[in-house]
Design brief:
Elements: H1 5-14, H2 24-42, H3 73-76, E1 83-84, E2 87-88
Antiparallel strand pairs: 1-2
Helix pairs in contact: 1-2
Length: 95
């Protein structure tokens, strides 16, 4: 894949970056070099390689999935303009 000068200008416009006309060829070369590198990555054989979260083996920390009220319902609704039985009261907006 190759980027032309018009594409560089379009990318700059979409990114809201002011690019002078004399900078376009340099940016075109840089973008093409990045795309070439990405194409090289697609050639790597990753069959049998497991996804990893880090370069060092580790297990993700997990907490138990327990439903609770937080233990502080009074503190949660304290600043609400209207409450009832630890619930927020809101005005009716749909008839």
């Amino acid at each position: 894949m190759s980027v032309d000068a018009a594409t560089v200008r379009r990318i700059a416009h979409l990114a809201r970056i002011a690019v002078a006309e004399n900078e376009v060829p340099h940016l075109q070369e840089e973008l093409n070099a990045m795309l070439d590198f990405v194409e090289q990555l697609s050639e790597v054989n990753v069959d049998g390689v497991e996804p990893m979260t880090s370069v060092t083996p580790m297990a993700m920390k997990k907490r138990p999935d327990v439903v609770n009220d937080g233990g502080i319902p009074d503190d949660i609704v304290r600043n609400a303009p209207a409450t009832e039985d630890h619930f927020f009261l809101v005005p009716k907006v749909v008839e």
